[in-house]
Amino acid sequence: EAFFVRNGFDVRTRDACDEYARVRFPGLEATPTPTQGYCSYTLNLSKDYLLQFRPEAFMLDIETCSEVKAIYGKFAPTTTYLGKVQGIATNNLDINTESPAMHAYLHKRIQGIPLSEFRRRMRMSGREANDKIFKKRLMRGLAKVFALGFRGRRPLGDVAMLAGSVSKGKIGESMRWRLGLLSGLPGEDLLSYVSEAQRRLESIEASDWCLTHGDVLPGNMMVDAKTGRLTGLIDWAEAEWLPFGMALYGVEEVLGEHIPSEGFRYYHDHGELRRVFWGKFLSLIGRDAIEPMRVEAGRRLGILLWRGIAFDDGKIDRVVEAGRDDSEI
């Protein structure tokens, strides 16, 4: 219920969404997915399809969804916009203010379970003994996804043409400003990385740009429940064109895990796993296709922006603070 209230809807909006599913897809039993996203309400329609509802602020760009599918193929869902949901109740008491709208989307399901759930099941079943096999398999799968993104790369000028009048997305157009925000990070060590990123920004922006998933986390990585093989990435709502390398923060996210009261901790074999990723990636795109120093600069910038800027209901306009965002720091 918090999702609906947070976005200005009456709690009865959920009933309206459920009714929309019953009317639009008669004969199918629509049930809420076990895990709900922060920006949407999602229903299981069948083993192949999901129905998702999003408020105006978190609408999907269908053209971007189509581009994602064209570049990433089986690793990305097929998304269809179904339109606005009628008869939505809101908490808005001001008759002069436009009521929030809810939009419906049909997603062809990426089969499997989230990596976060796969990890939980492994711990519960005592399968840690084979953990390295699964982790290496995951790294090779991620390398394939990044190679597809790299093959679809464009010079920045081409990105401008592809995107029409808007050449960059939310992050791409504000990297310099966000780096300025990051100058407020606590600690000289962190600030040295910010200064380095500021010096290298022009070089990073001169890189080829790739259509980049904006939320590469274990919860958005789907894997086969038995083998751990990567089947795809879900929730491309924040996808945009960014310099290659910036999304490599997502590789860091699977080289370790968040430990309660400790924060993020790398696996003891993270160095070996990193080599598995790069070995597979370079075998797919060619060892001379990238400039390692520029890619490394992009990777560090991506980590800074991902971990250094607070989410805050999607605003992503505040630097993380000691005592308030310690896990991110």
Automatic annotation (TrEMBL):
SUPFAM superfamilies listed in its UniProt record: Protein kinase-like (PK-like) (SSF56112)
Superkingdom: Eukaryota
Gene3D superfamilies named in the record: 3.90.1200.10
Protein name: Aminoglycoside phosphotransferase domain-containing protein
Pfam families recorded: APH (PF01636)
The Aminoglycoside phosphotransferase domain, residue ranges: 199-242
Signal peptide from the UniProt entry: none
InterPro entries assigned: AGP_Transferase (IPR051678), Aminoglycoside_PTrfase (IPR002575), Kinase-like_dom_sf (IPR011009)
